[in-house]
Protein: Cystathionine gamma-synthase
Amino acid sequence: MSENTQKDSAREQGFGTRAVHAGQHLDEVFGAVVPPVHLSSTYAPVKIGQLRRGYDYGRGTNPTRDALQEQLAALEAGVDEHGAPQATALTFASGLAAETALIMGAAEPGTTIVMGNDVYGGSYRLITKVLAKWGVKHAVVDMGDAATVAAAVDAAKAEGPVLVWLETPSNPMMKVSDIGAIADVAHAAGALLVVDNTFATPYLQTPLALGADVVVHSTTKYIGGHSDVIGGALVIPDAELAERVKFQQFAAGAVNGPWDAYLTTRGLKTLGVRMDRHAANAQAVAEWLEGRPGVERVLYPGLADHPGHELAARQMRGFGGMVSVQFTGGAAAAKQVAESTRLFQLAESLGGIESLMNYPAEMTHASVAGTELAVPDNLVRLSVGIEDAADLIDDLDRAISAL
Ligand SMILES: *Cc1c(COP(=O)(O)O)cnc(C)c1O
Structure:
């Protein structure tokens, strides 16, 4: 074996290769290249106490879910020299089911969750309205400033255990926060750092490599990628923590079904190709929007004047497909644009191949109206799809020129 070949075999496989192959084991019965979808809820043992392949009941384990979990773990955490993922991924029926399992499994009553002042509204609602009843407390801070986070973490620590919850880039303000710096703050206080990586995806950002302890996903968004399946995931490198949360997944049972796992696996295989196009289109749209009459501010980390541009260039491999826009004409202008585009469909959610537009103040973020997480009422959020950029810009031009 030449030295070059040895070097090649030691090099970790690239993202695209892992996306296509990780977890996709050849079907030994028929040789099917695409692993079959295993719908069976239960598995016959060889005899009592002797399972055939470790499977007994679908809430606990299912081969199609395992394929997705292995594939996602390989993308967030990388693989060792035998191709085995360096973390455990656990998938769930939704992003919020994943978050519930993580907090119930990893935290205890009395824990304070220190979270950003622009976390996903549903995460805020879960923590403040549901888990609060079980003794989970919360503190809301500006994650853009590590010193502020450190002060909040120290204050919370005096009251009990702490969990730090970070989303970057954030939704819908597109604020970029320093994952490494906040990991240091969390670890100095003996706390875990959880990063919601839904917006960036492992193609553009790998928080575990920057010091995070857990990655959370709504796989409903870019990972599924086609707006046709709801799901969530956790990726956890620490084996003991993963075991605790896996017990929660099994015992509380909010798992995704085999068909949903299959659709998500299928979407995940093309993540890199889609994200390149999402990001190129979003950059074109953001540059076109900037300075347009009627546009007050464009929030996209790929713009050189975005406050998080340099940090994003350092900790991400691209700036993603989400763009927020504020209009000088206030709420009326924002709503008029949101209701008059043709290609950009007015809808909640994001991350699918088709472009979507959302008016957060009354749609995705209605649940945080009047709280410290409220969003400006002159803002619309664009999930820029993979259509042709020129057509998307024509669509926006028509809607904005009519203001
Ligand atoms: C959608 C979303 C969630 C919640 O996921 P569901 O699949 O809707 O339960 C969590 N975090 C972010 C950033 C999201 O966009």
